[in-house]
Design brief:
By secondary structure, the protein is mainly alpha-helical. Helix content is 46%, strand content 8%. α3 packs across α4. The radius of gyration is 21 Å and the shape is globular. The protein has four helices and two strands. It has one domain. β1 and β2 form a beta hairpin. The chain has a two-stranded antiparallel sheet.
Length: 132
């Protein structure tokens, strides 16, 4: 009788415990958002490791000029979009989305900095080289 009670107890413990498996796709989704001010944009990255990377690995925001970030971002976005359009050649789990970045739009230093470091984060996290 004791053995049956233990087996039933173990059965209920095992069936009541559940684990949540992580999503098979990496969390490398981003979003551009227009802020409250007229010319203010912000970048939202849906990967919790990005904020940690930004605080611990990234150079300070004024390390490079806004024009440097803009130039690098144009090149990174072009390469990123090329790779996202070539899922047979590049890992489609990394390059899941196309980035709509208009080089003629003035996004501001904050967004340019965050986008630049998003690409650096992807290089760091997935050990890929987006720079030429």
């Amino acid at each position: 009788m004791k053995t049956i009670a233990i087996i039933i107890g173990l059965f209920f413990m095992l069936t009541s415990c559940s684990t949540t498996l992580p999503d098979s796709k990496p969390g490398n989704s981003i979003s551009f958002e227009k802020g409250n001010e007229e010319d203010e944009y912000d970048l939202i990255v849906f990967d919790t490791q990005y904020d940690l990377f930004l605080r611990t690995q990234a150079k300070p925001i004024h390390f490079y000029s806004e024009s440097y970030y803009r130039t690098k971002n144009q090149r990174y976005v072009n390469e990123w979009n090329y790779r996202s359009s070539q899922p047979m050649q590049y890992d489609p789990n990394i390059y899941t989305l196309r980035i709509e970045y208009d080089s003629s739009t003035h996004y501001g230093l904050n967004l340019e900095y965050k986008l630049y470091n998003y690409f650096k984060f992807i290089e760091w996290k997935y050990k890929v080289n987006l720079d030429f």
